[in-house]
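Inverse folding, one chain.
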């Protein structure tokens, strides 16, 4: 397979060419298109299948206890799973009865969430205490309402294609997006843990809400994509808040400042602000080090067809110590025009380590000439 036949080197960032028919419609779509489609589909399916009134109860660590109830009594209490409104608190919960006398001793507070949100959200309790680590991914495809979904998908629609084209690979772009979302959840988790562990609290920026408070949304990944776009096209003009024309690098700094202000001032969505900042930090870091993302999907097993070579990732030198008896002809070093194998290896190493978008015109020409010679043209 020639160098310019590989996914990372094809124009348009998709790595596939458009085909006719239904199969072509889907196979020719970018990874960013699929992200938007999946997010919208999950929201629509959840709304149609379960409806707006079907919810799941999420028990928290908050309790409304009667005076004089001991910790041991609460730990041994019998939980009545019939949901009731807690008197004097105005929130829903379960009755707790003394295990010996059956006396009502208090209530455990619960949060009610739509079914899919309840099943796939991320929280410190679910992700860290109960080790349901798969929620680091599933929460990124759930949204709290149509407005929440619309704003996130609008951000992906405008900024995602810029990043995907420059990365040059669907797999690397998907890895980048998901990693930004994961880092958003991890910052949320860290600040929430500290907020519940540090005695007295009161430190600006920590999250003091219950450890089972749900986190949902693609915002962390979208913030990572935004920061990456600001790095790749820093002088591009956007309409901030649909009104104010501003260079994207300046707009991104302003938005990060707003998020930090809301987090430090304990705003109503401080948990979401923490996730946004975590995603933005990951975007800033990984867009400069895209080679770190090449093995992201290997946690789910080797990619299809990947056994002894690095196929499907940024290219590098062959890792097969026992090449086949009749390997494909190496690129020769014709005087004057054809690049040497050493030149090609140097350019391929640069692509693997820094990404296709970092190549100069001369280096791109080296790959083009090498591909033509490999094809015998």
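Residues assigned per position:
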């Amino acid at each position: 397979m020639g160098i310019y036949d590989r996914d990372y080197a094809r124009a348009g960032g998709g790595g596939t060419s458009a085909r006719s028919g239904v199969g072509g419609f889907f196979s020719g779509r970018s990874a960013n298109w699929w992200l938007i489609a999946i997010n919208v589909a999950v929201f629509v399916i959840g709304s149609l299948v379960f409806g707006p009134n079907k919810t799941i109860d999420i028990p928290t660590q908050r309790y409304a206890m009667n005076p004089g109830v001991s910790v041991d009594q609460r730990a041994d209490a019998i939980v009545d799973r019939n949901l009731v409104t807690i008197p004097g608190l105005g929130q829903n919960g379960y009755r707790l009865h003394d295990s010996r006398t059956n006396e009502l001793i208090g209530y455990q507070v619960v949060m009610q969430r739509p079914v899919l949100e309840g099943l796939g959200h991320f929280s410190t309790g679910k992700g860290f205490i109960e080790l349901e680590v798969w929620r680091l991914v599933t929460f990124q495809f759930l949204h709290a309402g149509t407005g929440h979904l619309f704003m996130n998908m609008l951000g992906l629609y405008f900024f995602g294609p810029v990043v995907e084209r420059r990365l040059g690979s669907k797999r690397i772009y998907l890895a980048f997006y998901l990693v930004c979302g994961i880092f958003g959840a991890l910052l949320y988790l860290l600040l929430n843990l500290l907020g519940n562990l540090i005695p007295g609290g009161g430190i600006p920026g920590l999250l003091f809400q219950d450890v089972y408070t749900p986190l949902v949304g693609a915002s962390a990944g979208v913030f990572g994509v935004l920061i990456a776009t600001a790095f790749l096209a820093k002088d591009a003009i956007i309409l901030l808040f649909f009104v104010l024309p501003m260079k994207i690098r300046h707009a991104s700094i302003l938005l990060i400042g707003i998020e930090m202000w809301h987090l430090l001032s304990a705003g109503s969505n401080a948990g979401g602000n923490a996730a946004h900042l975590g995603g933005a930090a990951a975007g800033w870091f990984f867009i400069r080090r895209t080679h770190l993302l090449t093995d992201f999907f290997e946690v789910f097993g080797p990619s299809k067809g990947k056994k002894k070579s690095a196929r499907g990732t940024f290219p590098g030198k062959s890792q097969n110590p026992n090449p086949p008896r009749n390997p494909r002809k190496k690129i020769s070093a014709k005087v004057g025009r054809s690049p040497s194998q050493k030149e090609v290896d140097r350019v391929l190493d640069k692509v693997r380590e820094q990404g296709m978008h970092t190549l100069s015109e001369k280096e791109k020409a080296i790959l083009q000439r090498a591909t033509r010679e490999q094809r015998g043209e």
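The chain is about 45% helix and 10% strand. The radius of gyration is 26 Å.
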